[in-house]
Amino acid sequence: MRRVAWLLLLLVALFAGRASAHELSMAELEIRETGPGAYVFSWLGGGRVPATDELTPRWPRACRGDENWVACEGPMAGLLRIDGIGKSYSAVLVKFHGRDAALHVYPLTAAQPTARLVDLDNASPFESAAAYANLGIEHILLGFDHLLFVLGLLLIVRDRWMLFKTITAFTLAHSITLAVATFGVARVAAEPLNAAIALSILFLAPEVVRRWRGQTSFTVRHPWIVAFAFGLLHGFGFATGLAELGLAREQIPLALLMFNVGVELGQLGFVLLILVLGRAARRLEFDRSPIALRLPGYLLGSFGAFWTLQRVAILLRGLV
Amino acid sequence: MSASTLRGLMALALALVMPAAHAHLTQTGFGEFYDGMAHLAVSPMDLLLVLAAGLLAGLAGIPAARFTVLALPAAWLAGGLLAQRWPGLAGGEFIGLVPLVLTAALVALDARLRPAGLRVLVVGAGLIHGAANGAAMTAAGAGALSVLGAATAVVVFVTLLAAESTRAVAGWPRVLVRVMGSWITAAGILMFGWLLHAAR
Q1: Considering chain A, what is the average pLDDT of its residues?
Q2: What is the DSSP string of A69-117?
Q3: Strand partners, A45
Q4: Of residues B50 and A249, more confidently modeled
Q5: Residue A76: how many CA atoms within 13 Å on its side-chain side?
Q6: Closest to A256 (Cα-Cα) out of A129, A171, A76
Q7: Where in A174-310 does DSSP place strands (E)?
Q8: Are the CB atoms for A118 and A98 separated by under 8 Å?
Q9: Which residues of B touch A283 (CB under 8 A)?
Q10: Which residue of B29, B65, B160 is in closest CB contact with A276?
Q11: What percent of chain B shows pLDDT beyond 70?
């Protein structure tokens, strides 16, 4: 146990940067469409350091930019990334003005330095729906923390009925907070949210070990309640995927529905894969090996602990 | 074998070999890890090897299958990462065909390998194919995450195949597995012939 504590301390020391107290402010990047595939942009920064000194936009793949203009093959669409957030500027507000006077606003932070630009103005409803669903699938497939949490739940549940209840509870809970966050009813800052999500994984790890040892606990008896409670938290995490889009209000219902459908499809695929692999592992008698039985719980605990420490360090750095 | 069957097999072999020549990674749109996973599904030479290894492991019994589902992806990952650092380690496509044909032939013959022999074959095959993957991914500008994705796909495929083929203890299921082995052998030999023809 002491070794583990030292190891964790070492990890924190390795990944935690030097804490420094400095004034943080917000910069604004204004992008204006001037013609088909042609854009001009300008920076507005209220800090002591000029925004252009620290902030570098990484334009979507099909675009190339110079000092104040960007040329794209077709409408600007894809992932826009701003490097350098978190030094003098804690956030960047990207304001995108289309030629039809439509305005999309994307708030970027060090925790979420990317914005997904989608050419929704020229897309059919079907194309828009497919784009949102695809984004939902991408968000769950790339959200390894969400997937690990689902894996933890799968390792705890005893039978199919409990599995159904647990996955349904998780789905229901994250759908509620995803809607709440997308409609702007409530919002949680990214840094504490990410730390809490990591903590939810860490919370499940000892429960998995307890289940393996044949012991019981509230979580082992009622995993669906835990899934619901933490699902509320994960829903706020999913909402960051939609926030990337800078949606206009009238686009929110379709986006919310299809993004959630995408998340559920990705989650369902993952659950099915784990169930099939679990069946194959039992066929190969891995369940007779104590190491194989212990491994998932300890793996979950290691990732949970690492992410918790890393994200708490980021949170504390932001507070100093 | 009739002429039309032979022509069909030649066309199949050509179709199987062609994708290997492309020096770009499949784009899933979900990042390098999933691109790496998809790479296995669209690389017939790799896919056939994993198929053959899964079948052979299943025929050899549960302990051998258990070893294979751990060792093959681990060797694949090691080979891939080493070749990303030193791309020269990756052999040509001819070398990749050797473990493929050998493994598939052993399935077709229902050969009883000694445990040590199976281990050498599995680890060697994983290293060779993993290295070829790693070098191809580096050439395509992909990093270690894509190799990890490919190794994860190997885990999934080989686990499912090995578990299912352990059921083929005797009778028709075992014959079916052996037939699959013979078809993979035939495809491997035809791919070898085609590469030889293309190299001239």
Answers
A1: 82
A2: EEEESSS--EEEEEETTTSSEEEEEEEEE-TTS-EEEEEEESS--EEEE
A3: A27
A4: B50
A5: 29
A6: A129
A7: none
A8: no
A9: 163-164, 166-167
A10: B160
A11: 86
List beta partners, residue A35.
Answer: A38
Q: Are B182 and B108 in contact (CB under 8 A)?
A: yes
Instruction: Identify the weakest region by mean pLDDT among A27-41, B12-26, B43-57, B136-150.
Output: B12-26
User: A138 and B30 in contact by Cβ < 8 A?
Assistant: yes
Highest mean pLDDT among A14-23, A78-87, A198-207: A198-207
Closest partner residue to A284 (CB to CB) among B29, B156, B162 is B162
B62·A276 Cβ contact <8 A: no
Nearest residue in B to A139, CA atom = B30
What beta strand segments (E) does A233-294 contain?
none
A135 vs B contacts (CB less than 8 Å) = none
Residue A136, token pair as written in the block = 């939902």
Q: How confident is the model at residue A169 (pLDDT cuts 50, 70, 90)?
A: very high
Spatial contact of A113 and A83, defined as CB atoms under 8 Å apart: yes
Residue of A nearest to B33 (CA): A142
Tokens read off for A52? 């252009």
Q: A281 to chain B: which residues are within 8 Å by CB?
A: 159, 163
Between CA B146 and CA B81 the distance in angstroms is: 10
Q: Any CB–CB contact under 8 A between A62 and chain B?
A: no
The dihedral of CA B64, B70, B74, B76: what is its sign? Answer: positive
Is residue A184 scored above 50 in pLDDT?
yes
Taking CA atoms, A157 is separated from A163, A165, A167, A232, in Å, by: 6, 10, 10, 19
The kind and range of the H/E element at A299 are helix A290-319
Query: Terminus-to-terminus CA distance in chain B, angstroms?
Result: 26
**In the structure encoding, which two tokens stand for residue B108, read together?**
């077709």
Q: Both tokens of residue B145? A: 């995450």
User: A280–B30: do the CB atoms touch at under 8 Å?
Assistant: no
The position carrying tokens 């990705």 is A266
- How far is Cα B78 from Cα B76, in angstroms, rounded to an integer? 6
Q: Tokens 């350098």 — which residue?
A: A84
DSSP H/E element including A318: helix A290-319
Q: State the pLDDT confidence band at A19, using cuts at 50, 70 and 90.
A: very low
Residues of chain B positioned with their CB less than 8 A from the CB of A286: 66
Alpha helices in B18-140 (DSSP H): 32-41, 44-59, 62-85, 93-109, 115-139
Q: Answer whether residue A298 shows pLDDT above 60.
A: yes
Predicted complex: ipTM over 0.90: no
